[in-house]
Amino acid sequence: MLYAMDVVTQQNHSSNETLPHVSEKLHTILTALYIINLAGGTLGVIMMSHQLFQRRSQSVITIFIISLLVLHTCMLLSIPFRLSYYILREWKFGRFACKLTSIILYIHMYATFAFYVGIIIIRLFQLEFRRCYTTAWVSAVWLVGALVITPLLLSYYGSSKTYHSSECFQFHKEIQEAHIVVINYCLVGILVAVCAVLTVMQLFVIYRLAVKYWPDINSHTEFRAQAKSFFFILVTLVCFIPHHAFRVYYIQNYHLDKDYKLHLYNEIFLALTTMCCLDMLCFLTGIAH
Question: Which parts of the sequence belong to the G-protein coupled receptors family 1 profile domain (predicted)?
Fold first, then answer.
């Protein structure tokens, strides 16, 4: 009996020692991801901006690239605030800044995905859009995001629960609410479905062109353009899909997250979505342009 109690006590003590160690390790991974993204993303944005200024390209794709540059810049400006919180383990910038910093990553993710889809569709169907039409469409996306979505999120995101002023990015508590669960499932379903359809279509087109132009496939502009478009699908598969897949698991198992380990894993997958800002470096190397 005493031996059994000693074993249980030792197991509990070992568990209590392991949890802080795991938490520390996850915080280190989280911090490293954001540092890499901040450094690589900033370098890519600066170099791509310089190249665009020199070339003064008037193509439709350039409009999307400029929009991605602005999106990435806004997101990169928010990363130092996150790093400060993860390093100091204390939020020092107020509740509004916390909500805004948290919201920026989600807006960046979905707006980036929307612009990727635009680029893929234009190249996939070889659409000839006039520059003015593309500018109007991109402007509409920006206006809806800035004047509708952002104010709504700032008003309602993280407003139904009470949070400590020194904590941030703890809005996962609201995931228990039914309408939040529905919205999350809808976002996951839409992104995965769109990505799956575009992936199948893009692979089919690449296969058809490869058969048509074999063996000199790389000498044909049409094939190279479609191969470069597949780059954006790969970014979505690597950066966005893991976060959404884990989000489903997180929603279903949130009630079991007593030690906040799942929350930290969710933050790591969210940090992974910001790696899409490294796409500017790929543009510069000619992979996606």
Answer: 40-249
